[in-house]
Amino acid sequence: MSNSINKKDVTDIIKYPILTDKTTQILEDSRYSFAVEIKAKKLEIKQAIEQLFHVKVKKINTLIIKPKKKRVGKYIGYKNKYKKAIVKLHDRYEINLFLNS
């Protein structure tokens, strides 16, 4: 397996950052949450984050969020399942998720 992944693979692995009340609280500890490809491994996620944001990753925790019921009126459906990666960075690095205007 190669040590670097190309630009197309990076955007396929990392989908979007997850911004909720809980994830904004853990930003103070240099921990960031991302929705990632469900089949991505921790090493691939680490390489993609380091290549995309030019940071050094210390630790990665992953979990798969199961589908949940969603009701709109009388219709019941399900939200898609996805994989969530919580990335801990080394002390001197940070990722700016919010645009400064």
Going across the biggest sheet, name each strand in turn: 1-2-6-3
Instruction: Predict the CATH topology.
Output: Alpha-Beta Plaits
Q: What would the average pLDDT be, to the nearest integer?
A: 90
The total number of structural domains is 1
Report the radius of gyration as a whole number of Å. 15 Å
Structural class: alpha+beta
Number of helices: 3
Q: Mind telling me the CATH class?
A: Alpha Beta
Share of residues in strands: 25-35%
Describe the largest sheet. 4 strands, antiparallel
Low-confidence runs: none
Q: CATH superfamily assignment?
A: RRM (RNA recognition motif) domain
| Architecture per CATH nomenclature, i.e. the level-2 architecture | 2-Layer Sandwich
Terminal CA distance: 41 Å
The percent range for helix content is: 10-25%
How would you spell out the order of helices and strands?
A: HEHEHEEEE
How many β-strand runs? 6
What form results from the Cα inertia axes?
globular
Describe the 3D structure:
The chain has about 100 residues and is of the alpha+beta class. The protein has one domain: Alpha-Beta Plaits, CATH 3.30.70. The chain contains three helices and six strands. The strands form two sheets. It has a four-stranded antiparallel sheet with strand order 1-2-6-3. It has a two-stranded antiparallel sheet with strand order 4-5. Helix 1 crosses helix 3.
Brief overview, please?
With 101 residues, this protein is α+β, with helices and mostly antiparallel strands. It has three helices and six strands.
